[in-house]
Amino acid sequence: MILQMIINGLLVGGLYASIGVSFSLVYGIMGIINLAQGTQIILGAYLTCAMVQFFHIDPFLTLPVSGFVLFCWGYAIQRCIINMVGKGGVVLTSLLTFGLNLVLINIILLIWNADFRGVNPAYAGKNFELFGATIPYVRLAVFFVAVVATVSLHWFLGHTQTGNAIHASAQNKRAAQIVGINIRHSYALTFAISSGLAGAMGTLYVILKPVSPFSGADLLMILFLVAVLGGLGNIPGALLGGVVMGLTDSFSVLCLGMQYQKIVLFLGFILVLIFLPRGFFGRRFYG
Amino acid sequence: MTEPREKLELLTVRDLDAGYGDAQILWGVSLGIAQGEIVGLLGGNGAGKTTLLNIISGLNSPKTGSIHYLGEEITHVNTYNRVRSGITQIPEGRQLFPGLTVRQNLLLGSFSLADKSRVPEELDFVFDLFPILSERQKQLAGTLSGGEQQMCALGRGLMSNPKLILVDELSLGLAPVAVERIVEALKKVYREKSLSILVVEQDVHLCLELSTTAYVLETGHIVKQGPSEELAKDPQIRKSYLGI
């Protein structure tokens, strides 16, 4: 039973990590708290539902499309709107993303109404046994895709010229301009990558759980927790934060029951804020 | 230091007025840099030297006036397009990317290089110039000593294969030995690459030694200009800048 809980926690932790990373990236590079991130994930989820419904394709195959659509959305929204108040500080940008969140929710409501939607692939119930624990294939696949996405993002940022340019824009804006980086493009690209990852994770999320237009709020709480646990702006930290979140999640359900799950999470969160306010890796990653 | 190779105008700054908010910093500043020339810009703290450099780089915009580069007006061109066309700044205080390695810093210098096949060649040139950077290429730039950081900053600027480099306070905060090494390197770069240099320096000796022509900027006005050798003999300059 405990092994089962650990496995469940780890598997969902992979997804949480990826969600946390997408949030942490934008904060780490631009200092923007994107309160619309939860709903961006939900938008990705709805796109997947729509594609599965219309084209009868496997939900995993829709992942590149929802990722790409959200990538373009993120680029446009950053370049045209958020960029305008980028110098306004964290309060202004938070207000702006809060407003964007409301707009997104209402767009989803207009197109798809308020019903819960989900996808149910034929293989959803299939699983295998490992040391007495049941592992559903779907959850395992979701875990792998999420981890691969996160690790490749980390690799991209560390080992490509574009990735270095993104780091450079975060570390020294003036110097980035001096070496010829178009920082408006660089910021928009960062935001787009974050949104694109959110869209892709929306596909994975809806494979596990049905969503409503308002599910973004729950997700926002999770990604806040993951990002803060790992240290804001720190990608490897967010990976660890995701796994810890997943484990806490499944153990609180086991020991106390579903209704106490969120209480445990937030009590844990308060303890972290008191004792490890900079997350597991108590240092600033950028700047 | 050297005779100007050809008197072909590379950069022309005309009647520049600039400032921040209500505070005007530059008043009708005009300045020219010929191809293959080293021009010095002298002036005390707050004279407006860095502001002028930032306007040439495109980091700040002037209120009025114009900048021409290679015969084209670039007054309103973005910084990244100016870097692409060959104007590079070696900023005051180095301004490296502290969390990236020396190698990554240098490679970012070639970010605007259109022909990426030149990158290894440029990198070799920089490593040849400063072998210490080659040894430290995997080290984070923030952990280098001041002199090494300045080498890295100069190297990063050279990676874009510039036609004009704007060197801001090269010697500031460095040990004399380090300054000497870097100045030697700068002279070598000048000999081997066909480029022009605008040197902004508080060290007047150094500035006049390096440059062929110099300008003196005081509270936003160009008060004197001429061949560096003559300026070095000018009684007023000797009095106010050289303390003789």
A few lines on this structure:
The complex is a heterodimer of chains A (287) and B (244). Chain A is mainly α and 287 residues long.
Per the CATH scheme, the topology name of chain A is ABC transporter involved in vitamin B12 uptake, BtuC
| Rg for CA atoms of chain A | 19 Å
Q: Largest inter-chain interface?
A: A-B, 19 and 24 residues
Number of domains of chain A: 1
Task: Identify the strand order in the major beta sheet of chain B.
Answer: 6-7-8-3-9-10
CATH architecture of the largest domain in chain B: 3-Layer(aba) Sandwich
Give, in order, the helices and strands of chain A: HHHHEEHHHHHHH
Q: What's the alpha carbon Rg of chain B, rounded to whole Å?
A: 17 Å
Shape of chain B: globular
Helix content of chain A: over 70%
Q: Look at the structure and give the CATH class of chain A.
A: Mainly Alpha
Order of helices and strands of chain B: EEEHEEHEHHHHEHEHEEHH
Question: Could you tell me the mean pLDDT of chain A?
Answer: 88
Strand fraction of chain A equals under 5%
Shape of chain A: globular
Q: What is the CATH superfamily label of the largest domain in chain B?
A: P-loop containing nucleotide triphosphate hydrolases
How would you characterize the largest beta sheet of chain B? 6 strands, mixed
